[in-house]
Amino acid sequence: MIWLIFLVAVVALLVYRMFQKEKEKTTFFTSRGIKVKNPQFFMLSLFKLLTGQMGVVELLQEIYYEVPENEKVVGFWDGETPIIMLKDPAVLKNFAVKEFEHFQDRKDFLSEEIDPLFGNSLFVLKEQKWRDMRSTLSPAFTGSKMRQMCDLIIEIGMQMVNYLQKEAKDKGIQSYEMKELLSRVAHDVIATCAFGIKVDSLTNRDNEVYLAGKELSDFNGIGKFLKFMFYRFFPKLMIASGMQISPVKESNFFRSLVTDSMKYREQQNIVRPDMIHLLMEAQKGKLSHGQGEKDSAGFATVDESSVEWKKTERKWTETEIVAQCFLFLLAGFESISASLSFATHEIGVNPDVQKKLYEEIKSVNDGLKGERINYDMLQKMKYLDMVVSETLRKYPPTAIVDRECNKDITLELYENKHFDFKKNHAVWIPIYCFHWDAKHFPNPEKFDPERFSDENKHMINPSTYVPFGIGPRNCIGSRFALMELKTVLYYMVLNFKLEPTEKTQIPLKMAKSFGTLQSERGIYLQLRPRN
After folding, report:
1. Are 439 and 345 in contact (CB under 8 A)?
2. How far apart are CA 137 and CA 11, in angstroms?
3. Whole-prediction pTM value?
4. Buried (b) or exposed (e) across 201-217, using 16+ Cβ within 10 A?
């Protein structure tokens, strides 16, 4: 009997302590005048994510709309870490730009101990090492460098058209799941631009390069999600186990691709206008530095003209250089193919948009008189840019980014509202929520490229449209991404009419995924050759 009494007492004490802890967490924000999400939210949401009841989109919207519309921030807890979600564009700009030196880094994600390649990539590097790597790579992503690389992407666009036209000729008009189709096209772009090799993944469907890239870039699987969670809560145990996030076999395969290519080019004095060449030049300190170029690849291009990256004398190891190609693979394989498939869906189910886009593309193509499209001509196509911009508004490549405070500091959140940030406190930037907030984009569920017309785009607050992030830690590859999106869409719409099928989901719904945005039932379209 005494043991039962003791057990009941212990359980009661634990329950009491849990409620006291929740009360303390709630008071932490409310005492500072900040509305707060239920402290139990994190564990409940984690359970829903794991069981497929909730995706990243639902997670963000649940927090974003927890408080009244006029509230500029909302607080919640990520385990034992207080997080402030930024809901107001002016507050967002203040943290991402003005206070950038205090919120430069992302929260601890993966270290090089856990994953040598991903942990050394620009995406997760921190503090001075991140600044040095950004400084090293910045000259490789300017407009002038993209012009040199554009022909490589054009070749893949033409390769895609040849394959699809042959399919239609041999088998009749075909329907495709566009994400699967375009992931192969995006992969071939990365293969030629980042790794210096020609691959045709549409014809040679089981080539080793494609299969390895697909395995490495899949971050929506439950297996990788669980690994992330274990590393987050039990990092020392996972490091001791030697288990990496990225598959070892595929990681070593791509490492060899890059290092072997670099050695061969060095020995044979070969120059090819791709990412490996640019990284080799960066490693030698031969890329020019200074003020960023002011040319734009479209409305969505991030502006780096005001950022002065100082040249670094740091010497990069082979692993650190290879890691940047690895990041290029991850971003290009998944994010670009997703954006392309969403764009083709909207073009296919909106005949008026497709008609106007085709007319512009055909006019440009006729004017080329048999010559290939080029980087500068792509940038002059206003409606194509409007379609791409609206795609990135409705389906941003990243739904959320975070920033971690690097020192104890008191900052003004907004007018007369100060907050004592401690080191490792964090803020969330809910990109998806900004893009779908009717205050910023009326009728947000509608695909409307006219939002970005010359007559309307001045009404868009730049801090509410951030598909590639905001501030100095934006996406360094925005120009490349826009160039690839426009090139592939140019060739697709020029040569094929995109038509819905009985399998096309209208309206498109998002899957409850915890990685990048994914369609619930795939994206199916019929491609009818125009000639």
Report:
1. no
2. 56
3. 0.91
4. bbeeeebebbebbbebb
